[in-house]
């Protein structure tokens, strides 16, 4: 790349977020496109990539967990889809809970940054929207187990191999088969076995989705 190369115009860079939003079906913080159906379940219809799913849930991946294929923790001769709790935006759950002066300052700075970015991207009522997002992230922080907790250090205590049908019963607010079919470009049977490492968390996320207003 030439050292003195520059983009042809700043306008090109400013248009990119809008183009990305349109390609993903719009962004609820600037108003849904005409005829759009509100709701978490909409993210799975017609989308073919994990990035699309992540985008439609406001950056909270899928909005509970990040399914990946790994070697089965109790059977190294096979691979298995593994579902675990998803990381938070801030590096540690305690930062959302205001347990000390530093946490309060970090959360305030995070809110100010989010509000500024939302405004720059054209969000309506950025102050209120940033408050709602942090409230949701705080609810997720409250059900997240810290990676420093002993519970997260022993995979045998977290390991739960269940079928896709059983997972759907545990966390009914997400359409798991549709979701995994999209991510892995497959057509899974309801008897497909998957490994869940945070069963309690997944169940509570499903409850949060159920009680969170749709956009």
From TrEMBL:
GO MF term list: metalloendopeptidase activity
Organism, as annotated: Lates japonicus
Upper classification of the organism: Eukaryota, Metazoa, Chordata, Craniata, Vertebrata
GO biological process: proteolysis
The name this protein goes by in its record: Endothelin-converting enzyme-like 1 isoform X1
UniProt signal peptide: none
Chain spans, region Disordered: 1-28
Sections of the chain in a coiled coil: none
Domain Peptidase M13 N-terminal: 69-214
């Amino acid at each position: 790349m030439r050292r003195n190369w520059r983009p042809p115009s700043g306008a090109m860079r400013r248009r990119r977020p809008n183009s990305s939003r349109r390609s993903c079906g719009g962004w609820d913080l600037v108003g849904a496109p005409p005829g759009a159906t509100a709701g978490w379940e909409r993210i799975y219809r017609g989308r073919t990539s994990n990035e699309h799913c992540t985008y439609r849930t406001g950056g909270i991946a899928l909005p509970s967990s990040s399914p990946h294929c790994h070697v089965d923790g109790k059977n190294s001769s096979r691979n298995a889809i593994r579902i675990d709790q998803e990381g938070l935006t801030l590096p540690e759950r305690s930062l959302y809970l205001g347990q000390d002066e530093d946490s309060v300052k970090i959360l305030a700075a995070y809110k100010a940054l989010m509000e500024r970015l939302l405004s720059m991207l054209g969000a309506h009522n950025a102050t209120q929207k940033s408050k709602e997002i942090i409230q949701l992230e705080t609810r997720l922080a409250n059900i997240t187990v810290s990676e420093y907790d002993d519970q997260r250090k022993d995979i045998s205590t977290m390991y739960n191999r269940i079928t896709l049908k059983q997972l759907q019963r545990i966390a009914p607010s997400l359409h798991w088969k549709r979701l995994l079919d999209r991510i892995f470009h497959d057509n899974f049977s309801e008897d497909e076995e998957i490994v869940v490492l945070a069963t309690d968390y997944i169940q509570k996320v499903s409850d949060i989705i159920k009680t969170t207003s749709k956009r």
